[in-house]
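Weekly sync notes, structure subgroup
Attendees: PM, AL, DS (notes)

Item 1: joint prediction request from the bench team. They want all two components modeled as one assembly rather than separately. Inputs as received:
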Amino acid sequence: METQLIGDACVSLVFGEEISVENSRRVLAAYRHLKGSALLGELGIHDLVPTYRALAAHFEPGTDPWIVARALAEQLDPETQPRRQVAVGPGKTVEIPVVYDGEDLSRVAEIHGLSAADVISLHTGATYQVAMVGFKPFFPYLIGLDPRLETPRLASPRKRVAAGSVAIGGAQTGIYPEDSPGGWNIVGRMDPQQLQTILPGDTIIFHQSEES
Amino acid sequence: MKTGTDSTVPCLDGLAAFGRKGMYWLRRAPCYGRQDVGLSPGGAMDLFAMLTGNIMLGNADDAEALEFLLPPEIEFLQPVYFILTGGHFRATLSRPGLPAQEVNHAAVAFAPAGATLTLGVRTRGLRGYLCARPCLTDTPDDEFLQRRRGRFAEKFSWFDPFGRIRVVEGPEYSWLREPELFTSQYWTVSRAASDMGIRLESDAELLVGDGNMISDAVADGTVQLTPKGPIVLLKHRQTVGGYPRIYNVISADVDLLAQFYPGQSLCFRKVSIADAVTAARQKCAQLEALRGRYSADH
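Output from the run, pasted for the record:
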């Protein structure tokens, strides 16, 4: 595990180099293990941010970042902390009803030589892991898109994508929490309010809904 | 300005009402604990300025303060002590039946109910702050009215004496082909500046070698290198980003960035992590010294 400093008030523990289910699982396990731990208060850590391959800890300025990094690494090291691990269950599973009538659905189908029904079936057939949340508040980055649905982003992004749009961008699928510009392929829509309950580490399942 | 319910908004716990015209926000201290769902701590853009104001009034650190780029007309609804900190604006207090009074920067002043505060030309910095607390006695207390912080540059010493913004290496620093290009020249704050961050412009082009940047965490002061040049993230930033994090402004100096206006030039100085930690501690100690001086509450 490598340690990076993001300024003098944030350390990042790097678990791997690329986006993978395995790296994400390790990051999320560390995130769940540390979240709620008394160590956070002792070190003045006020925020933990899991990402695809790293876990960042933001703390009060004035603390030596290397002391924070060492303490976190020790807490996570199974050799030094064999059985002190608090029982950390998996995140919750969230089922999201999606109306699959996105403006790019037929084009995505065409690109892959599939029918729209095939695209919907592949998209609802997978189980997605929330690897991280960010960019915009409540924007979930999901791992688990069926490779058969990988679709390049739009050559020129749209000026406005509606909140709740379910979209595919490259190897990722995600949901827009608020109206914003965006270059992902929109395949459906959901109720954006539902995103506020989602945490990193949760599992998401989409199922087809006729109308919201 | 004639104020009324349709043109003003009561704020600061009912102590004042602000006209709708202007660019201003009600700010508190940062709110932590939700960066994992994409919410940055935010709070006052120049937290140090807001804290010095609240401390000098004997307020709680996170008492609501007014932050303004374009100040609104301000009417005090009760007798108050108030103070202006941060960016300097020419300020005049109009009191019913009394001559108008100039208000000094960073000095506690008194306003009777019904007085209006007019903020005019900005002479220094970008973001101004107004902190206030109620005056519960019939006449203002002289001890309060003698509270003067003094000039920022004379009163405090935690910043770079030459006005440079200090940076440390970021996680993708080693990707830069010529890293010293960032610290060896002047940059201009572009018009594309907001509470999320400021874009920097210059003739020189920073280049990174090949690297596969995967979206990762960012912090206050993170310098991201975009294809259009560097961006420095400020307090109301996103929580993750997909551009190389080449440098990071040290935590102490992020408040200073809030006072740079579009078109202003700035330059950076690279320091060590140890220097950054020392600066953060100095800043904290100097705030505590101010607190010690004014903590005898009324």
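Discussion: The helical segments of chain A are 21-34, 38-43, 65-76, 105-111, 116-125.
Action: AL to compare against the crosslinking data before next sync.
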